[in-house]
Amino acid sequence: MSAARAAREIKEGRLTSEALVQACLRRIREREPQIGAWAYYDAESALRQARALDRMAPGLRGPLHGIPVGVKDVLDTADMPTTYNSPIYQGHRPAWDAACVAATRHAGGIALGKTMATEFANNHPAPTRNPRDLQRSPGGSSSGSAAAVADFMVPLAIGTQTGGSIIRPAAFCGVVGYKPTFGAINRAGLKAVAESVDTIGVIARSVEDAALFVHAVSGRRLPDFDDQPPPPRIGFCRSPYWEHADEATRNLLETSASRLARAGAKVRDFTLPPEVAGLYTEQDAIVYFETARALAYEFHRFPGKISAALSGRLEQGWRYSCEDYDAAQHHAEAARIMLAAQMEGYDILLTPSAHGEAPRWRQPIGDSLFNKNWTLLGLPCVTIPCGTGPSRLPLGVQIVGPRHADARTLRYAHWVWQRLG
Predict the structure, then answer these.
(1) What confidence tens digit (pLDDT) does each residue in 32-72 have?
(2) DSSP string, 386-414
(3) Considering the entire predicted model, what is its pTM?
(4) What is the C-alpha separation between 177 and 194, in angstroms, rounded?
(5) Which of 50, 121, 177, 353 sits CB 3.0–4.6 Å from 396 for a disulfide?
(6) Which residues are known catalytic residues?
(7) DSSP conformation class of 382
(8) Spatial separation of the C-alpha atoms in residues 20 and 42, rounded to whole Å
(9) Which residues make Cβ contacts (< 8 Å) with residue 260, sequence separation at least 6?
């Protein structure tokens, strides 16, 4: 059941939060030994919260009333361990909730547990398996969030993205991922790795569910999905990395563009200006520089408890100078201004979510080549499942909107979803 439908049924008295939480817990007990989506969950606490919410007067109920939510284990929680998937923080109990977790609870949501993340939301894989094929990875770094939603363990899960950590896992698992405009959701209580890029978002089963969550925790306007918008003006952005996508992904995007044009959309090719197309190296410079400094304590105090992959990344980050960093930030800001002007004739862009199907389990979590630029530029992005690859595993298309145009981007992503999903 989708989060939006569950919220409506709870509001109308046709479903209780306790029954919904019980159903999620049954699924977790059945499937968690195979999937490994959870770093921690507390069944009794979730049921106590659900029963208390069921007794609450209707006038006091929020938009997420009674809905269980997974919380990525890089976000602090006062009532559950927060380990950032690192042995350095085993048993760590923060004294407070991250702002987005507190907002989730304030809106009536139930923090059911902590979903697995890669180590400090970097590239060292989590043990989680992809529910679509247990020999495949769900991607990362929001590995457990994507797997838990895809396997019907929970209707919503919070994710974070610095490169492609919401969009890519959602695409690999065949669900919806939404990375809002940078800063749309408060990041207090997030274990930062790149403070000028880190963005909190959500993994869900529908565009409507994703919009509901972000509305509930940020107060941003909820699109009216019952009111059909005019067909959008779509820029088909193959991106400079088009040849890095596999044949199935390229075919899916070409076919999707044609189908949307037949449905009435005005689809035109969209070529990124060189200043935007070349941002890949700037994104690396910014993220590596900031990550090295964000994890300086852990790197110097506990070098033996950091994976070789992350250790190498941190060493590389320290090699970037402040001048390198400032130049990269200056380039990124200029690119934001340039792209905003170029997008004025378009409502959304259509582009790949990932290179192809999910990688093998325990292999690298997948390249964020098709996500990094949009994340660095702070643009809202939505991935929609709409096809399968040669191994019958999910493929997605990515919808990118103008900065701070989240409601419009979600509305048009829903329009696309209805015609492709």
Answers:
(1) 999 999 999 999 999 999 999 999 998 889 999 999 999 99
(2) EEE-TTS-EEEEEEE--TT-HHHHHHHHH
(3) 0.97
(4) 20
(5) 353
(6) 72, 141, 165
(7) E
(8) 15
(9) 234, 267, 350, 416, 419, 420
